[in-house]
Amino acid sequence: MMSKRKLTQQQQRRIAVQHDNRLMEAAHLKAAQEGLLIVRHGAKAWVENEHEQLFLCSLRQNLESPVAGDRVIFRAISAEAGVITAIQPRHTVINRLDANQELKPLAANVDQFIIVIAVKPEPSMEVIDRYLVAAANLHLTPIIVCNKMDLQDDKVLKLCAVYESIGYTVVFTSVIEHRGLDALKKLLVDKTSIFVGQSGVGKSSLIQALIPEENLVIGEISELSELGKHTTTASRLYHFKDGGDFIDSPGVRRFNLWAMTRADIFKGFVEFKPYEGRCKFRNCEHTREPGCALQEAVKKGDISVDRLNSFHHLVTTHSIEG
Ligand SMILES: Nc1nc2c(ncn2[C@@H]2O[C@H](COP(=O)(O)OP(=O)(O)OP(=O)(O)O)[C@@H](O)[C@H]2O)c(=O)[nH]1
Ligand SMILES: [Mg+2]
Ligand SMILES: [Zn+2]
Questions:
Q1: What is the predicted pLDDT for the residue at 62?
Q2: Domains and CATH numbers, the chain
Q3: CA of 143 to the centre of ligand 1 (A)
Q4: Parts of the chain with a pLDDT under 50
Q5: CB of 175 closer than 6 angstroms to any ligand 1 atom
Q6: What single string gives the DSSP state of each residue in 251-272?
Q7: Which strand (E) or helix (H) includes residue 184?
Q8: Ligand 1 atom 32: the closest Cα is on which residue?
Q9: Which pLDDT score is estimated for 20?
Q10: Which ligand is nearest to the CA of 251?
């Protein structure tokens, strides 16, 4: 080692300054900071600090599972890495049941549920209603986006007309023809919106069209099954330069609701609300009971029979009251 005496004064000064800088940097790195979780990959997650710098963070043990949209406390251990030590309280968290019947968080702190359907793969009412029930119970604003309008189809238009007549916002888009994107943009400004829907409907394609400066992976639709190929594998947050954030989520064939009561499911059928408590029998199940206000509304054409059937279907498959 070189002895200090052999260094010039200038060299000594420089070393002292460097040493100070390193100490300061180390202290800064160790300090806890708040960040926004962008995407989680197993035991690691990308976290963005207030200066929009990204850190690949590991999760401290015993930490509850953080997801895209979470505000977290983390400590940087280098210029690119860190450790998440805590999750800030969430104002919302979206869960769904995975194949093992385990509740898995999809995203946190979201205001809007962008339910994407498409001409292909063909949507069913049940798919949409599951999302509407989830949105109603989480107090999220639902917006239905019907994508791939460049492919003609009357069936999907009829389906969307049911939701429009109830009063839901339906936006018709085509990424290919650049249709409906401005209308969609207006609904997304200054909000945190999660894009949900079946694999292959074009969630990532829509976000890509709204923020061309990002680079999203877009999948294909299988020629054989006409279903998507599960291209997006983790929920990921993107900033919208006009203000607000989007979360892209991995598509699922069906959105599995967590255990709910009949009343929870009822909340997703907003057009039923005026008839609540108006059936002849207080415990009316709205099937074949005489004097059922909902059945009468269906007969009069005020409620779609498909929606009532969909309600019954969700109750039989999801209600914890049987
Ligand atoms: N014809 C047509 N095709 C579209 C449109 N939007 C997206 N696509 C195509 O649909 C396919 C699936 O698009 P993605 O954006 O990957 O779908 P996704 O919903 O993100 O799918 P997952 O990530 O698997 O959940 C791709 O081949 C897209 O090019 C559209 O407006 N019209
Ligand atoms: Mg995708
Ligand atoms: Zn009834």
A1: 82
A2: 4-87 (2.40.50.140), 108-248 (3.40.50.300), 262-318 (1.10.40.50)
A3: 18
A4: 1-2, 322
A5: yes
A6: --SS-PPPPB-HHHHHTT-GGG
A7: helix 181-188
A8: 148
A9: 72
A10: 1
